[in-house]
């Protein structure tokens, strides 16, 4: 019988690969606008899960686990400055996300 945790872990790894290798063009702000979460949220959730399991982890370690590199490096390679339109859409979407 297949372990559900293994399937979930595989799906999570695939999501990270998709976001960090195949869709580097998708900005975190766009993810926040459309889905209410971004790569940084994933890193926060990862860190929270680690801490709940008794594994000490800081924000930068969690971000490196999610981004596959130090966050500063990811940011310099892939993150563009948010446009006024993105910022306005983000503000408008804030009420839709928890």
Give an account of the 3D structure:
- By secondary structure, the chain is an all-alpha fold.
- The chain has one domain (4-96): SMc04008-like (SMc04008-like fold).
- Helices cover 69% and strands 0% of the residues.
- It is built from 6 helices and no strands.
- The chain has helices spanning 4-22, 28-35, 39-52, 59-67, 71-78, 84-93.
- Helix 2 (28-35) packs parallel to helix 6 (84-93) and helix 3 packs across helix 4 (59-67).
- It is globular.
Topology:
Elements: H1 4-22, H2 28-35, H3 39-52, H4 59-67, H5 71-78, H6 84-93
Helix pairs in contact: 2-6, 3-4
Features:
98 residues; mainly alpha; SMc04008-like fold; SMc04008-like_sf; SMc04008-like_domain; DUF1244 domain-containing protein
Quick overview of this protein structure:
InterPro entries: SMc04008-like_domain, SMc04008-like_sf. The protein contains 6 helices and no strands.
Estimate what percentage of residues fall within beta strands.
under 5%
Query: Are there runs of 5+ residues with pLDDT below 50, and where?
Result: none
What shape does the CA trace take?
Answer: globular
Q: Examine the coordinates and then state which fold CATH places here, giving the name of the CATH topology.
A: SMc04008-like fold
| The named CATH superfamily | SMc04008-like
Total beta strand runs:
0
Q: Give me the secondary-structure category.
A: mainly alpha
The pLDDT mean sits at 93
Structural domains: how many: 1
Q: Figure out the total of helices.
A: 6
